[in-house]
Amino acid sequence: MKNLTHYLSNAVHTEEDVNKLKQYILNLAVRGKLIDNSSSELKHQNTIEGDNEEETLYEIPKSWRWVTLEDILMFKNGYAFKSDTYIKNSNYQVIRLGNVKNDKLLVENKEVYIPKEIALSCKDFRIKDKDILVTMTGTKGKRDYFYTCLFDSKIEEKTNKQFFLNQRVGILRANNSVKPELVNIFLKSKSILDLVFTFETGTANQGNLGTRAIKRIPFPLPPYEEQESIITKVKELFTLCDKLAIDIQYKNKHSTKLNKTIFSEVLGHNNDNMHENLNFIVDNINDLLENKEDISLLRKAILSLGIRGKLSVSNPSDDSASKLLEEMKEEKNRLIKNKSLRVSKLNKEHSVTTDIPENWKKVKIGDLMEPINGKSFKTSEWSNEGVPIIRIQNLNNKHAPFNYYNGETAIPEKYHVSTGDLLIGWSGTPGTSFGAFIWDRGFSYLNQHIFKAKLFSSNLDPVYLKHAINAVLEIMISQARGGVGLKHVTKSQFVNIEVGLPPISEQKQIVHEINKLFLLCNQLEEQLDQQNDLQEKFMNSIIQ
């Protein structure tokens, strides 16, 4: 108990942490470790008193007893009301599975009613004050049922209704040896639920807990005089947990709003202070970046600055971008003349939304490179050894396994990939499959759905072009065709995407600055992973 109160502020950072703490509280409660006046002496008891069948049970205080639910309460299953007897409205509502959640009675959820004469004939199934409602059916193996809710008769006064129990919803009605509030609390403990679901039956998909099984559920029973103290302490600590959850929601909401505002300022096209805003973010990085979503926003901001010339300094003595563009135009025309390159029609219109320095040029990707699509390897050509085949998953996940080619038929050179080649994923799931990458894992063959960039000049830095493409990735994805989960960009769409072309010296400056800032982002992600790992270990240690 002291661990909880002492470490609470350090342990709780997310709503998931709050839920874990609630389970920790329940774990203490059902073991008699939550209140100070519980006997510290434990007894080793592996069987329920009066039961011939052995159960695997945990230790409880010497003053407590292991019993079954039928020892301390009456259980009653609901009545099988016929749907053709339901009416639109009355003062007699039927409570079904969907109306009962943990500590919530959802009386407005798909209400069904019965006429007065049926209600009078089924008065044994009317729900009474302090009855514990329990759901008995759900998805097998998922524990999405055995929800418990304590019925408060005040709802009858508030709604002017009486409530009746439908089948597959049960009533647990406590006797004089136990307070119903305690039963309702204890039945939400994972320690108890682990015992409950050992009795689960049903089909492949549907799980059930029958009347006999529920009656046999083991229950740790404290002395009656201790029960109220346990109930009060659990409610007190749960109130604290709920307050922490509200504080976390508030903090996350306003932190996200603040960070998005700051990053919007950096990304603003008409903002003259973008670089200063980026410096502000870097200087206050530990306060502003709290999760990987924030780091992703920072990466986008860095790319946005880079492709607008905000991370580089122009040198008047450098060759202009116009000269570089002319050089690439000559190479492109030579390839077309030699029939080494098919002509791609490029739109003449230019975007007016992105400002670039005067010595840069707005160009289409098709002015800079020829995108070569990969080979459509058949699954029958895959092998466990040979030359790696680069698929989409090998671009965005360095740990993804390769398929290999070890066939006798030579693979054309255009599908060969070497370290340093620029590759672009253009088909798959938006957010994971699209993007530009520099290949760094040796000689390989290129699979379909990936472009290899054949640059028209050695004075075009492939790493700069990678960053430029990734900076306009949202434009690329917005043009993609296909269904909700799987989209693709055509070659014609891709070559007409517009980017800024700086002189070669500025390209290298931009690459240097972006790489330096991205390294900082990578370090931050590693720190977050380490913090989350330590946090998880800490939470697990106090919940044991």
Automatic annotation (TrEMBL):
SUPFAM superfamilies registered for this protein in UniProt: DNA methylase specificity domain (SSF116734)
Any coiled-coil regions, as ranges: 318-349, 514-541
Pfam family, one: Methylase_S
CDD domains hit by this protein: RMtype1_S_FclI-TRD1-CR1_like, RMtype1_S_LdeBORF1052P-TRD2-CR2
Presence of keyword Coiled coil: yes
Keywords, ordered alphabetically: Coiled coil, DNA-binding, Restriction system
Type I restriction modification DNA specificity domain: residues covered: 61-239, 357-530
Family under the similarity heading: Belongs to the type-I restriction system S methylase family.
Subunit structure: The methyltransferase is composed of M and S polypeptides.
Cross-referenced PANTHER family: TYPE I RESTRICTION ENZYME ECOKI SPECIFICITY SUBUNIT, TYPE-1 RESTRICTION ENZYME ECOKI SPECIFICITY PROTEIN
The protein, known as: Type I restriction modification DNA specificity domain-containing protein
Organism per entry: Thalassobacillus cyri
